[in-house]
Specification:
Blueprint (H helix, E strand, L loop, with lengths): L1 H39 L6 H18 L3 H26 L9 H23 L15 E4 L2 E4 H23 L1 H11 L1 H6 L4 H23 L9 H16 L4 H21 L6 H13 L10
Antiparallel strand pairs: 1-2
Helix pairs in contact: 1-5, 1-8, 1-9, 1-10, 2-3, 2-4, 2-8, 2-9, 3-8, 5-6, 6-8, 9-10, 10-11
Length: 298
């Protein structure tokens, strides 16, 4: 009996860590979406497509530099900037002319952009499955609670909090972050004191999309990089932002933890229906607090 309890406790602990590592990817992507929603009031459905492009770009960069450790780190560093460049072009050519339009038009526009980016990805990279090898020291597993735990997942558990701290410092301790928060509340007043609000919005949009690209690059060694990987992530990201609180970074973290942990424990207890557990949790949160768990900060 004691042996069975030990096995169950070990399984609970390992699935907790697996859920946390999955939550870190969700947080990085959803925090970028939360930033765009909070500052620009743009429901960017194409955010998932930028995540997918980040994963494809990471694969191409890793292959261009011969794979291995060097290719991986360069891919992890450069792929988000590729996505940031794509998003900057889209923002300056398209989005900046639409900020005053109603949300339905923005929703339809970003949906169209999602389809366009999906087709462009198919043209550039094709429909084949791709993957990236993590560096040798991030491969394999280490024993935790008597069970193997992937080293790369442990790496994600380090990266996620670092991104969260970086976003908090940007939002609260930098001039650009404070201006972005002010522009989200009253863009006319910010413009009246001589600040170019258009470029503030562009920076916030590009930063949010940069995070989508970073999430795609980070997830590439753990999944097959392929067309369609954007569909699931954008649904999950929107739900996370909704239950967390619009524009609230810590709300995005809380929502990501709920999503990641319920999915992980669903695999443990009821694997056939594990996909349902996060959505049941979302429904419970929205019934309990329709406005989200944490207050919208913008």
């Amino acid at each position: 009996m004691d042996s069975g309890q030990d096995v169950m406790m070990a399984a609970l602990g390992i699935h907790f860590l697996v859920g946390l590592s999955r939550a870190m990817i969700l947080f990085i992507v959803s925090s970028g979406l939360s930033l765009v929603l909070g500052v620009l009031r743009v429901p960017n459905i194409a955010h998932g497509s930028l995540y997918m492009i980040g994963a494809f770009a990471a694969h191409s960069i890793a292959q261009a530099f011969g794979g291995g450790s060097t290719g991986f780190w360069l891919a992890l560093f450069l792929a988000p900037f590729v996505v940031a460049l794509v998003s900057l072009i889209a923002e300056r050519m398209l989005f900046c002319h639409l900020y005053e339009r109603e949300h339905l038009m923005l929703l339809l526009f970003t949906f169209a952009l999602m389809l366009i980016l999906g087709d462009l990805a198919k043209i550039v990279w094709g429909a084949d499955y791709r993957s990236i090898m993590a560096p040798e020291f991030l491969q394999g597993s280490i024993p935790i609670l008597g069970s193997p735990f992937p080293r790369y997942n442990l790496f994600l558990l380090i990266v996620g909090p670092l991104v969260a701290v970086g976003l908090w410092l940007f939002s609260n301790k930098t001039k650009m972050g404070i201006i972005a928060r002010a522009a989200a509340v009253d863009r006319e007043m910010v413009g009246a004191i001589g600040i170019n609000v258009s470029w503030v919005f562009a920076f916030a949009f590009v930063l949010g999309c940069f995070l989508a690209g970073l999430g795609g690059a980070l997830v590439a060694p753990t999944v097959s990089v392929t067309l369609g990987m954007d569909h699931d992530i954008i649904i999950e990201a929107f739900l996370i932002v909704t239950i967390g609180g619009l524009g609230n970074m810590w709300g995005a973290m809380a929502g990501s933890l709920i999503f990641g942990l319920t999915q992980s424990y669903g695999v443990l207890f009821w694997p056939q229906f594990s996909i349902l557990f996060p959505y049941i949790a979302v429904a419970i949160v929205l019934i309990w607090r329709p406005q989200g768990m944490l207050k919208s900060v913008w």
